[in-house]
Amino acid sequence: MNRSRLKTLLFASSAIFLAVALISHPKESLKASIKGLHTWWEVVFPSLLPFFIIAELLIGFGVVKFLGVLLEPFMRPIFRVPGIGGFVWAMGMASGNPAGAKFTVRLRNEGNITQIEAERLVAFTSCANPLFIFGAVAVGFFQNPYLGIIFAISHYAANIFVGLVMRYYGIGDKTRNKEEKTFFSLKNAFQSMHETRLKDNRPFGTLLGDAVTSSIQTLLMIGGFIILFSVINTLLSLTNITDVLATIIKILFVILHLPEAFSIPFISGLFEMTIGSQLISEVKNAQLLQQAIVVSFLLAFGGFSIQAQVASLLSQSDIRFSPFLFARLLQGIFASLITFIIWKPVYENGLTGQNNSMPVFLNFDNDVYLHILQFFTEYGPIITIASLFIYVVIYGRRAFR
User: Fold this and answer.
1) Residue 212 φ then ψ, to 5°
2) Closest CA to 331 of 80, 163, 170
3) What is the predicted pLDDT for the residue at 299?
4) Which of 40, 57, 139, 230 stands 20 to 30 A from 32 (CA)?
5) Looking at the record's lineage, which domain of life comes first (predicted)?
């Protein structure tokens, strides 16, 4: 049997299995679907929408080109991507997955970066946002705000290390492979911004409408994946598939001196990192360091739910998914190692020990992210419904114009 037929058989078998499982467990599937829906419309949609809209406006007004010229002397020598990639990296860190992929695809389709550069860029701009790391995981699951600092350091430092590794990806590619000397020039940056705005030439109302519709369409796709993988995760558990996979993971955990009780939560986290992180925080008789190491891996890996979202976005361009998947595994390993290395000096001796001489940037109100998360949980549905209503109005007016 050739590879193509084997792939067809695998996809068909998986679809049939899910259909049968849905029919066999309708009540549990409905609960999982509702849980995924609540996650999307309470937190994901209202927290990501402003970032997406503002980013679209920044691209349209040429601000991204302006930043690209300024950041070229930094991004090109270190990560072998254009300076414009600095904008993607910043938006990815601020708003979380899959913002990095969305804006990388946008830049690629507009011809601002090459295919290889896009694959390098999307590899290290995929990360969770601070709200999720501090509010949901550290405070919400572990009731320990100091863990948020550990997770954030390991997570974002791992992003940098992945970027340094991926700079050697596609090094033999002939397209824009020659390193050019670039210099900081505010005048050239402003000129590029002005030319980009003139080239776009859309009125502000049209630009804003396009930003809203494009952002909401992306978020609707994200919501579909969140609900789908919430259901898949539940069905795998109900059909004991998770238990079977966990027996394989137990062998790895024994070698790494990690509790076997992490195996089932870890498998769940590979599909949906939020669920996996919560389950790991609930494991009894486990060292906090061990929990932190595994959760750091899941946060960096992202879960198949986020990877499916990214794959869907990348399919709109010629950017290949395999480098992104490799980078997620690499980031997971880096994040786990960094957590292990900094645990004693930062967490035990610095945050919870006698030594309180921590850097100023780490001394902040740890409850602020929890308050933001609670705000989105309370008012998120209202923001989501209002935004969807605006989207329908804009889309309807354009359709019947």
Assistant:
1) -65, -50
2) 163
3) 93
4) 139
5) Bacteria
